[in-house]
Amino acid sequence: MIKFYVLLGPPGAGKGTQAAIIADVCGIPHISSGNIFRENLQLKTELGIKAKQFMDKGELVPDDITIGMVTDRLMKADCSGGALLDGFPRTPKQAEALSDFLSSINAEIACVPFINVEANELIERLSGRWTCKAEGHVFHTKYKLPKQEGICDYDGSPLYQREDDKKETVEQRIRVYFEKTAPLVKFYTEKEVLVEVDGALPIEEVTEALMKVINCQG
Ligand code: ADP
Ligand code: AMP
Known about the structure:
Blueprint: E1 2-7, H1 15-26, E2 30-32, H2 33-42, H3 46-55, H4 63-74, E3 84-86, H5 92-104, E4 107-116, H6 119-127, E5 129-132, E6 138-140, E7 159-160, H7 167-181, H8 183-190, E8 194-198, H9 203-213
Parallel strand pairs: 1-3, 1-4, 2-3, 4-8
Antiparallel strand pairs: 5-6, 5-7
Helix pairs in contact: 1-9, 2-3, 4-5, 6-7
The structure holds adenosine-5'-diphosphate (ADP) and adenosine monophosphate (AMP).
């Protein structure tokens, strides 16, 4: 059975940070719905322009648009051996659609690591986050400094502060998380695939815990 992993957790929990490391160390493709939306936005595609109105307000992009976009991406050849999903699913409808899609390709969700971090810590993380233009690699003014200020360590592209990382939008995104996405903790607990990981630990310790959970030796 082909194995997929879903990283669950509030905005700022460290999903993107950890997924990038794990993709590299464990050789599992990192699929981030937020990164796909932002790529579309940079390319000014119809999808990107439509998504922007929701993203700027800290709202979720409607399910039908998001589900189609992610399942199209998962059908590409690099995901034929599985993938690590970051930021998707974010609603029960997306979770059901993902289960249906995976059954149709003879794949399953092997495990859902839930990276848990308290709400007040999330605001500090997101307000200090700097993101790379090219591939969405993330840094932090206090917790993960780039080697050269303003430049991505991985690909040399410029770092910028995301429009939706302003305080008001961050607060809205956290509210939306508790209302729309937090129910997935119960959904995946009932499916016996959820494993909680303490996201308040330093980045390297969270990586270590996640690698154990997904059974990757590195
Ligand atoms: P998410 O993808 O869940 O929204 P990110 O991976 O982008 O979260 O992390 C949000 C911010 O917090 C980034 O600036 C990142 O460098 C920082 N960060 C991630 N994990 C930790 C950690 N364990 N401790 C401190 N800061 C972290
Ligand atoms: P992220 O990069 O995961 O922080 O996502 C940034 C923004 O993209 C979110 O605040 C949403 O507006 C949108 N987005 C990303 N993933 C999804 C999803 N699975 N469902 C709906 N909207 C999403």
